[in-house]
Protein: ABC transporter substrate-binding protein
Amino acid sequence: MRHQLRSAVALAGSIALLAVAACSPPQNSGEEGKGGKTVTTSLAAEPVHLNPMGPFAAADTAVLTLLQDTLLVANQQGKYLPRLAESWTISPDAKTFTFRLRPGQVWSDGQPFTAKDVVFTLTSFAHPKVASPQSTRLSNVAGYADLQAGKANTLAGVTAQGADTVQIKLANPDAGFLSLLAAGMYFFILPEHVLGKIEPAKLMKDPWFLKPTVSIGPFTFGELQPDQRVVLNKNPKFRTPVAFDRIILNILKTEVATGQLGTGEIDIAPVGPLERKNVEGLDGVRVESIESPGFNRIALNMRHDYLKDKRVRQALVYGMDRQGAIDAALGGNGKVLNSAFMTEWAKPAGLQEYAYNPDKAKQLLADAKWDPNQVLIAPYDPLQTDRAAVLTVLTENLKKIGVKLQPRPFDPSAGSPLDKGDWDLFLFGGGVYGIDPATLVPILTCEQAYPKGGNIPGYCSAELDKAMSEGARTASQEARAKAYRRAAQIENEDVPYLWTARPMALTGVRDRVQGYVPWGDAALSLIDVAQWKVD
Structure:
């Protein structure tokens, strides 16, 4: 069955690739008629809000990496790279973080970029009336509790020390705090001079975010054509102006975008893992690959009584042929994980591997008195074809152990199914978790339960929270490793997620674009745009 499914998925992808190439005449994506040079790439979904304070969406983040910027970012190897900040220092007690901003930076409207913008942004993220899902990433900042309780209007721990310096003081030591700021580019800095007068309660849904008129990234906003494309224009005031004039992000299914690489309609596009060999054979196209810094997983909605028993969750992971899913949906371009803990020095030995074992799964379900009539709902984005293929494998696997799974497609532009609560399993991926175990706080700890934070399953373990806290409150890597290994063992046993794969990220790039650096996180795939050279 595994071989048949993989062959069927591969054949369908190849037919789609050939069909797109056959019906589309070769084009020059430089669009000389519009003046200057244009690079064309793709988005798997339409941006929803372009508001970094809103729920995470990969398409929105990809566009935001071109429009706005963060203080720093962590790369694939876990190294911190300067962005808006040129340097930073950490106090010996890991409670004070001081950022020196690059001098002379300006917004696209010519207004100076200053520490006030950073203070405004982080206060807005933390403000209870803004209600950002990213808020709890800042919960250890001094003054957060008072701001949340309505006792203060500002985040006391974040202060401007002159125009070019920002200081962040924490309530408790946290050696991993820098990773919370740097991983995944969540905290895009916003223009205080534009948004500062808007009431916090109205900020999240302010129409400015649908057409942001001011930016500090490499591009400025041009237009959004619903269901078609996003057009961004070069920002001449960016600290390192890009080598071309505009970038167009076409909203396309992955297989269509891949096909357009061959016709020259698109310069950069994600490559479906089953299409890797086909794309590598296209003239004038190369495939860049790198291991993802995050992982694909299926959140299990532990708010529902029938998923609260860990034996049921263990049965689901035993009952899923994860390697089969990697082979069928990813063409083998990925590997199985058994924990969200990916930092090498924090990985414990002896984790349960949950090798595919339908008989073990059936026994666990029997012990937990599983109701075979219970139907599990699994919403998914049909534009992400590799993930849809994973659900196809999972549906067949679970049927064999007596569990009914109903995949249900949804339209991302209509909002997230997570907000409606009518779901049991939710397949998603991404993140940057290898740089420091502290980056897992938003997806595993009690206070981060969605919608307050990124803990989508609503998982809560006092023991895990204690271990995570202990790991954060010491600068000793040996002591941190001991605490995080204990946390990993707890998570491995509790199974809040089905860890489906750590995939390879594959990107097709036409030879006219040089200097492209692959990032495993699709949302950050365009981050190094200022380094590109375009023919």
Residues 1-33 have pLDDT under 50 and may be disordered.
